[in-house]
Every structure is written in structure tokens, then in C-alpha cells.
Specification:
By secondary structure, this protein is an alpha/beta fold. Helices cover about 30% and strands about 20% of the residues. The protein has helices at about 25-35, 55, 60-65, 75-85, 145-150, 165-170, 175-180, 190-200, 220-230; strands spanning about 10-15, 15-20, 45-50, 70-75, 95, 105, 110-115, 125-130, 135, 155-160, 205-210, 240. Helix 8 (about 190-200) runs parallel beside helix 9 (about 220-230). Bound molecules: zinc ion (2 copies). One zinc ion binds near residues 51 and 53.
């Protein structure tokens, strides 16, 4: 649906079930973005939340409440959102996630995993139909053995390539924000993302999407080039998730 600091949302479909992973868009915008994918909000069986940052969580409860969609969320993320707005989740059916335990939403198998990011209890997810796995990693300050073990052997990956380190350090952000973004609980730069990718078992990888690009501190060319070098593939093989368009349906079959 879209990817970046202005809003994130990704739809996964398997065996007639659909989940929305994050919703950083207002209801009207989210509905329009779903329509672009041929979907209505009523088609969603659930919404999964990664963490409380507004580009991921802003639209979750409004969309869930409006269309009666259940939400899966970590206790820490829910607490952080409730501290900002005590009534945020009013009227929404919630299920709390254990970040180390898989669960099902309809026919979709959801494997949450923990990541280092400056949020209360941030999770990322591997989504599967039982046979094929999509690994999503949009917000992490660095890689970890746990992340690499979880994302190894996926059939498709949506991988954060947030910034180019040179562009960030020479750019207009204030020093504290540069330190936050580049720090171990911030965001993956292109080189760190490539290093993570290189550490994975990529033998089943059919699709790779560069995601969560900074509009100010990265370019699509730099992000793509970093991943292309690891894959030794044609540049076009690496897809890009953009802020306005996201990316179209990718088939894991
Ligand atoms: Zn974040
Ligand atoms: Zn984010």
C-alpha cells in the first residue's frame, strides 16, 4: 500500500485469507490504497501491528473500528498507543501477541520476531501459507542472529533500506536525529541491509523488495544497487516499495 516515514501498509493474501501489516494511513487514504489492489477493507481478516510509531500505527484502530477488523498487537505496542490516547483501541477486538510464538489469522500463518528498534515492544513478521514464506523487516536499528535465523530461507523478502550513511551524515537532519536514525535502535542503512541479506540463506528467494526508504537520505538507485550487488542480479529484479504507490501484487507461486 505504501512504504516510508509518511506511512506503511502491506497486504498478504493466502488461501482466501488476507492480513494487513501496519496501517500508517488515514481511513480514506487506506481505503483508496486497498482499492488500488482490488480490495475493500471488509476483505481483511486482521491487522497486524509492528510498533507504535505513527507511520505504522496511525490508521490501525480507526480502520479496525470502522470496518470491524480484529487487530493483533504486542502488549508493549498497545500500552504505548494507549498512553498517547486512552480510548485509541475502544471497540476494537484485540489479540495480544507473544513475540516468540506463531499464530494463525484465518489460513495465514504468522511468525512474529523481535527486533532492536526504539519502540516499546517492536515486532516484525514472517507470513506464510504453510509452504511459502514472506519475510518483512521494515524497522530495525541493526541485524541480529535472531533476525537472520528468522529470515533465512524465505521465498520473498521486504527489506528495509532506510538511508545512505553519507547522505544522512552530510544531510540537513539535526545531530540528535542523525544519531537516532543511524544508531542500533534506529534504521538499517543500505550497506547494513546488504550485509544482512548476504548473511541469509537466499536459495528460495523469488522476490526482493527494498522498503522504508528515506525521502531525504536515500535514493532508489542507491538502495537498489546495494541489494543488487549481493544478489548479483539485474537491477530491475530488485523491486522498490515507494511511499505513494508501495508495490503491486507479487506472486509467491
Ligand atoms: Zn519505527
Ligand atoms: Zn517506520
Amino acid at each position: 500500500m505504501g512504504s516510508g516515514s509518511q506511512g506503511n501498509g502491506l497486504v498478504f493474501e493466502a488461501a482466501g485469507s488476507r492480513v494487513l501489516l501496519d496501517c500508517g494511513f488515514a481511513v480514506r487514504d487506506a481505503t483508496a490504497r486497498l482499492a488500488r489492489l482490488g480490495l475493500e477493507p471488509e476483505d481483511l481478516d486482521g491487522i497486524l501491528v509492528t510498533h507504535e510509531h505513527s507511520d505504522h500505527a496511525n490508521g490501525v484502530f480507526p480502520l479496525a473500528r470502522r470496518f470491524g477488523i480484529p487487530v493483533w498487537i504486542s502488549f508493549g505496542t498497545l500500552t504505548a498507543l494507549a498512553e498517547a490516547d486512552a480510548l485509541a483501541a475502544d471497540g476494537v477486538k484485540l489479540t495480544l501477541i507473544d513475540g516468540h510464538a506463531s499464530f494463525a489469522v484465518g489460513d495465514i500463518l504468522v511468525q512474529p520476531y523481535t527486533v532492536p528498534h526504539d519502540a516499546r515492544e517492536p515486532l516484525q513478521y514472517v507470513l506464510s501459507d504453510g509452504a511459502r514464506r514472506l519475510g518483512v523487516l521494515t524497522d530495525t536499528g541493526c541485524s541480529t542472529p535472531h533476525i537472520e535465523a528468522t529470515l533465512s530461507g524465505c521465498d520473498a523478502l521486504v527489506l528495509e533500506t532506510n538511508h545512505d550513511r553519507e547522505l544522512l551524515m552530510n544531510g540537513a537532519y539535526p545531530a540528535w536525529l542523525k544519531a537516532r536514525v543511524a544508531g542500533p535502535f534506529g534504521h538499517l542503512d543500505n550497506a547494513a541491509s546488504a550485509q544482512l541479506l548476504a548473511a541469509l540463506d537466499r536459495s528460495r528467494l523469488r522476490h526482493l523488495v527494498a522498503a522504508h526508504l528515506s525521502l531525504k537520505n536515500n535514493t532508489p538507485e542507491l538502495a537498489r544497487a546495494a541489494l543488487v550487488e549481493v544478489m548479483a542480479c539485474e537491477p530491475e529484479w530488485v523491486a522498490l516499495a515507494t511511499q505513494d504507490e508501495g508495490f503491486g501484487w507479487l506472486d509467491l507461486f
